[in-house]
């Protein structure tokens, strides 16, 4: 296999999908040059560690919990926001680990998730009775969310802002996970007042007390492993903007192979997985563990061809297929893919994204999802894999650590009318903190079954 990374011009000449049209090419080149000399955000060895963990996931020896915003924003890079998200992920991981008796690989959809593919290049809104059409918002990496002509112009300086925002986020996350915040003895303190008042919060309290007891027992008999004090946490994002991703790719001095050093795990989206496209061409050369989304239009042959391209040596842990069918389609659509891929002996981790096949517009115009559909798709995913004797490896969820109102249903029975209360997502609706925890309890039960 060739380890020579194609140059940016080669990728550009392939006409990559979903790229911004920048008005000023020189400014783009300047940003790329600057990024190319910036220090790595993650290290190649850390990426290799994650590949090994993903290999364990593919064998059913660990479960992947991948979560975070649909689209991070620069404004969202605050200590509170990052901590709340991390805390919720840690709570979910504890529920899965303890409730499901399974090691959990924790992967933030964080510190780099700033670029969004869009189904339409344009967005039309009625402003003061007048219909106005502007370029679509493509994530803070590209343009501004504000609905004005000036804000929607793609600005290449934002690529450097992505680097800085990712560095700040990752720095804080690293401090939290190694500095004691993620210590299992803090398991109670992650449950703040707001959650404690909910039914699921009380359920968590009970589980945390059981963990406390188990830890007191271990301390009493003289066991105090380092594993209790710190957790492994990795970062991930959709590697969409080839200018940024290519500039953030470095040749590792140990192996002399290219790694994307802007995140540990990167994935190819549903809209950019064309077999002969520039994204697949870029991804097949980097050595990170990688994901590829597969929606209802993907055939088993597509999956096989992608696996052959992206993981020609069939290396365990290298490739993850993230399926996103929708609750109503997964039971019909998934078996064919899994059966054929498995029959061909392809090594892959299967992960369920129960979000992107379940989005719809509520009667009051909000883009939303039903909590019951999210749980339903994960249940379908487990049922399909269990019936085929294959491994349901994990979940990828869009979630936040805040009390937002973006997804309807769940134990707190959020209604369509309630969406307006605190809808903050700039792109897709996220599970709020209670819904995230609630989902973790459901999944823990599926793991146990
Ligand atoms: C996403 O993960 O936010 C996304 C755009 O997903 P997909 O590529 O599966 O549509
Ligand atoms: Mn999304």
Automatic annotation (TrEMBL):
GO biological process entries: amino acid biosynthetic process; aromatic amino acid family biosynthetic process; chorismate biosynthetic process
SUPFAM superfamilies for this protein: Aldolase (SSF51569)
EC assignment: 2.5.1.54
Cofactor annotation: Mn(2+); Co(2+); Cd(2+)
Manner of cofactor binding, per the entry note: Binds 1 divalent cation per subunit. The enzyme is active with manganese, cobalt or cadmium ions.
Binding site for phosphoenolpyruvate: 109, 270-271, 293, 324
Positions contributing to Mn(2+) binding: 70, 356, 398, 428
Enzyme class: transferase
Record keywords, A-Z: Amino-acid biosynthesis, Aromatic amino acid biosynthesis, Cadmium, Cobalt, Manganese, Transferase
Region described as Disordered: 1-24
Coiled coil: none
Pathway(s) annotated for this protein in UniProt: Metabolic intermediate biosynthesis; chorismate biosynthesis; chorismate from D-erythrose 4-phosphate and phosphoenolpyruvate: step 1/7
One example GO MF annotation: 3-deoxy-7-phosphoheptulonate synthase activity
Known catalytic reactions: D-erythrose 4-phosphate + phosphoenolpyruvate + H2O = 7-phospho-2-dehydro-3-deoxy-D-arabino-heptonate + phosphate
Family: Belongs to the class-II DAHP synthase family.
Cited PANTHER family: PHOSPHO-2-DEHYDRO-3-DEOXYHEPTONATE ALDOLASE, PHOSPHO-2-DEHYDRO-3-DEOXYHEPTONATE ALDOLASE 1, 2
Protein name: Phospho-2-dehydro-3-deoxyheptonate aldolase
